[in-house]
């Protein structure tokens, strides 16, 4: 039989006494972890009524976050089996359940807050305090990040070869400047695609009038298009 050395029981100790080790394993703070558990615990997928009892939701979330926070060999089900001390099927089922639960709440947390919301006002104050009153409505920022791939994709692999000589996918993120909350994103373009083109795949770029409040705008670098709702450095 496969020998296992489960470490899940250490997470409770790490959360209290060594939070940096908790973050290293799950890539979230203990407080954020508890908040996610509170948000997902009522989902029907965790209460199937089967005679085969599921693992506690906190354990399922820990398994999912451990896999989501690593890539390459460390993300394989076999390695998670060793770390968590559960079966291969449990690793796969926990990953699927948590992913389904998180995706079901996507629209509740990803989106531009209303103009009269506290989040919007806090973002305006944040900008004004660090720049000037005339710029307070620049409450969003856009940028890209390359998500590295474990190896060259089998189909159209060369298109994923980016300017940093790695195989990657282009990830576009539009965030609130005061707390970095993601309000829109774009994912799927290969790493060789220019940011300006990948940005056009986001909802906010396709429908700026419907998503960005009037007289508000996004800050971005010179790779992005100059628009009334997208401000880039003078060039």
Provide a concise account of the structure shown.
The chain has helices at 9-17, 19-26, 30-40, 57-68, 77-84, 88-104, 106-109, 118-130, 195-199, 203-206, 208-211; strands at residues 140-148, 168-176, 182-190, 218-219, 230-231. It has 235 residues and is of the alpha/beta class.
Main sheet specs: 5 strands, mixed
Radius of gyration in whole Å, from Cα? Answer: 21 Å
| Separation, N- and C-terminal Cα atoms | 64 Å
Quaternary = single chain
Structural class, judged by helices and strands? alpha/beta
Order of H and E elements: HHHHHHHHEEEHHHEE
Task: Tell me the overall shape.
Answer: globular
Number of strands: 5
- The neighbouring-strand order within the major sheet is 3-2-1-4-5
Helix fraction by DSSP (H/I, runs of at least 4): 40-55%
Q: Roughly what is the average pLDDT, rounded to an integer?
A: 93
Low-confidence runs (pLDDT<50, min 5 residues)?
A: none
- Share of residues in strands: 5-15%
Question: Helix and strand layout, with pairings?
Answer:
Blueprint lengths: L8 H9 L1 H8 L3 H11 L16 H12 L8 H8 L3 H17 L1 H4 L8 H13 L9 E9 L19 E9 L5 E9 L4 H5 L3 H4 L1 H4 L6 E2 L10 E2 L4
Parallel strand pairs: 1-4, 4-5
Antiparallel strand pairs: 1-2, 2-3
Helix pairs in contact: 1-2, 3-4, 4-6
